[in-house]
Design goal:
The chain has 216 residues and is α/β, with parallel strands linked by helices. It has helices at residues 18-32, 62-67, 69-74, 100-109, 124-127, 134-150, 166-176, 204-212; strands at residues 90-94, 115-116, 153-157, 181-184, 198-201. Strands 2-1-3-4-5 form a five-stranded parallel beta sheet, sandwiched between helices.
Amino acid sequence: MTSLPFPNITEPATDDSPLGILHELVRQFDSTTPSLPHTSAALLPRPSINPEQSILGAKPDVSQQILSPTTVQDMPQSEDKRPPLRRRPYVYFASKLVHAPLWRDYKIANLGHFDVVSTWHDDLDVIRKDNDDEAACLLGWKQNIVDVGRATHLVAMGAREDRLNGTLVEIGMAMRRGIPILLTGSYPWGTWRFLHGVMQFPDIVAVLEHLKGTRA
């Protein structure tokens, strides 16, 4: 196969052929544009760029830092000036079974200042069960544990002649959960009554007044 001769574009064309017109356009462009030395593109001067800055004005790896969970935690957070949500206290009443009617009346009356979450005083059949009924006792204590866990305050009442057992256990559970304990009655509560979070009141009326002005 015979190849066609390729025109020599290095020789200027003087005719009106397409190649001649192209040479004329190149000549006009060269006459209006300052000539640059024939230098390799790799050696041409580059714009001065701070390697620590990107076009966004931040460090090049800032996007990875933002996506990092550790960096998100370390970023300054805007202060939340909204008032905290407040709710009425959830009260657990602890005492001897003999005081169950009192707590039940408070719960039924729904004084509007707090919600009663203890339930042991509601079921008279359970209250009348003998202490040797293992199934009934376990059922009752499982419910008491759940109720104490829902409470924001525990109110314990005892008379001087009382022999408290379950009440002290419930107080211990409340202490373990950091729930404020409000004591009333003439019962000798012991030295733990001075612990942080334990308060004593002269009577149940004073306890209710305290709860009235308290928000959990």
